Amino acid sequence: MTDARPPRFDDDFRQALDDLFAWRRDVRRFRADPVDEALLRESLAAAHRSPSVGNSQPWRFVRVADPARRAGVVASFERCNADAALRYDDETQARYRALKLAGLREAPVHLAVFCDDATEAGHGLGRATMPEMLRYSVVGAVQTFWLAARARGLGTGWVSILEPARIGTLLDVPESWHLVAYLCVGLPVEEHADPELVRHGWQAQDATAARLFER
């Protein structure tokens, strides 16, 4: 046990943290430059310090480097994206097809993030009534990685237009691993404070009013 004193976070730090939240964006346009391995490892180390239900740490990060497997992921995205477009009427479908929804071909780093539903770490504490807390814990680790990467100049894009079971098969992971996120990571071509879907006319910017309800 250590008795190290906790850090004090001043106004400058809080402002910088707010700026990080504001400039954390889903990136779809990546430069071809390779990612500095040290920066990637530092971001992953931050993710591993995320909170988890019962200290179960159920996240499993898989770096996808094999070209054939990457091609399989791209094919899955293209199938799902084509199907998704058909859900809209003609005018909305045209706008949907014009959006860039993934940087799978350009991103130098692909990370598939799984939840190990069979993990014994934590001895099941805190999830008897809410077993989904395991996967929520993985989402927290993804968010931590995302912010840590952004603070180091790296962009991250979360691709959800995929077939989870197919990705698990492509990457040859245990059956107990459930895909939670597929991340594209690299240096962004451009940076913006506003969401891409707002910038390209898919939806209007939401009001900034807090979504807090009293009972």
Question: Could you explain how this protein is built, in words?
Answer:
- This protein has 215 residues and is an alpha+beta fold.
- It has a single domain (27-191), classed as NADH Oxidase (3-Layer(aba) Sandwich), CATH 3.40.109.
- Helices cover 38% and strands 13% of the residues.
- The protein is built from seven helices and four strands.
- It has helices at residues 11-23, 37-47, 67-85, 90-98, 133-151, 164-170, 196-199, and strands at residues 59-63, 109-116, 155-159, 177-186.
- It has a four-stranded antiparallel beta sheet, with helices on both faces.
- It is globular and about 60 Å long.
- The N and C termini lie far apart (41 Å).
- The model has no long low-confidence stretch (mean pLDDT 91).
Tag the structure with descriptive keywords.
single chain, NADH Oxidase, 215 residues, four-stranded antiparallel beta sheet, alpha+beta
